[in-house]
Amino acid sequence: MCGARLGNNVRMPGFTSAAILVTTDPPHALETDLLVIPVFENDSGNGLDGLDSAIGGEWSRTWTAREITGKLFETSIVPVRDAWAARRVLLLGAGPAEGFSHETAGRLAAASAMLARQRRSTRIGMLMRVPDAHDAAVVLERLVQATAEGFVYGQLQHSPHKSAGPDLPPLERAQIVVPGGRDRSPLQDAADRGRVIGECANDARLLANEPGNLLTPRVFADRAAALATGTGLAVEIFDEDRIAALGMGLLLGVAKGSAEPPRLMVLRHEPQDAPQQPVLGLVGKGITFDTGGISIKPADGMDRMKVDMAGGAAVIGALCALARLGVPLRAVGIVPSTENMPGGRATKPGDVLRSASGKTVEVVNTDAEGRLILADGLWYAQQLGATHLVDVATLTGACVVALGRWATGLFGKPVEWVEAVRGAADRAAERAWPMPSGDEYFEQLKSEWADMSNTGGRSGGAITAAVFLKQFAGDGPWAHLDIAGTAWVDEAKPWQTKGATGTAVRTLVELALCASEWSGAAAGPASSRGVE
Length: 532
Ligand code: BES
Ligand code: MN
Ligand code: ZN
Hints:
six-stranded mixed β-sheet; alpha/beta; elongated; 19% strand; 14 helices; binds manganese (II) ion; nine-stranded mixed β-sheet; 532 residues; single chain; binds zinc ion
């Protein structure tokens, strides 16, 4: 498994959580408020010696009474007798053992952390039960990393603006109990890595939950700079004059309708020990509020458009994680940020804008603004030397129609690079589903009045958006993640509060951690192999 050890871990103004310790002590020795034991369907009780008597026969009683069946997220909390050091055991349904994965492990950990905090338990421990089928050491590392990520993810308290909320104490101690006879140190590294990634995902969630009035482009940029402080990232914030000097007519065109000035965030991770190439270029959509502009959106549900900077937040979160983890790879993060408003100076349908790359765009619909600002961002990432591009954006409603809320749309070229991103998403337990982006679709973007139009009609709306971006992605590897369906959840889940999900942070970090495996996706002219 590719990974990095935790580098210099300075205190930062982002989401913080207690250290997560991996222990090989037997479960009975764990001193904790809540010892979480995942329970599989038809669980044989393997590795749970002494549990039944420690909880006064509750294990056998509840199975017989079918109070527990091992169904995913089923919970039963039982007190523990003196022989075990834990105060209570949480039997937590983990589903069928065959289907157990790092995704399930992460969600169970997040659910446990949420539950522990609601109960005001400040010490939590979780037993890592590895089903027989998955016994490899690498799998255990993944499970531990995902568990640590989940522990942190589950600790996010939303609604910082509610004056009276449940003031839940933070977790003071989190432990992961692994079976004895294992080498603890790579597992502790995995837990440290998971904690940092979880914290950075929470930073992205906190940003994306902020309302548009409080998180304007200027505030967004200030907060990005604050998050980067102390991580070793180089940060530059460009104001409207510098954006104009770079010739970013698409970003400025979107910003014109707003009283708030735009910003361009540039974050660079340049570790000493990293080779000059490759350079990962991450570009995130940073629309702090999307009214649609002159092509204004309907009122219903428009409040949700505060999440339209989630791609930008994910890029910031990922860059912070790379720096904090000391990942030996060069990376740049570019976040163009503006509001999309219908002001008196706003760009109008039919207006023609000139991009920094020189290509001109007819703005047929001002609500297709994300692709405009990303186009200038993609250009700038290449100016800074990025060899491998990934952009992340809440880009199209059409992507939500196509894939629903459980998969991110994945587009790009060449196939090898798309595969690298898809693999990273899988390992990060963030599903990304490959979609076409072949040049045939450019037909729909043809314009009488400029090099291209910014919309391609109703059919294949997520695809034509991607193909628009492709015009600005250069000749090298480029992938596009459309997170319109996955950046936000309307309903709380056992492992996830309502609101921003922080999606793509884990995928991007995983992609960077495995840079040595980017074979076949070398920088240079796009491959013509396979389906694009
Ligand atoms: N920010 C929206 C896309 C979106 C939709 C994000 C739902 C999150 C949830 C984007 O700027 C947009 O408005 N896209 C238009 C494009 C159309 C005008 C071509 C859309 O999807 O309707
Ligand atoms: Mn829009
Ligand atoms: Zn938008």
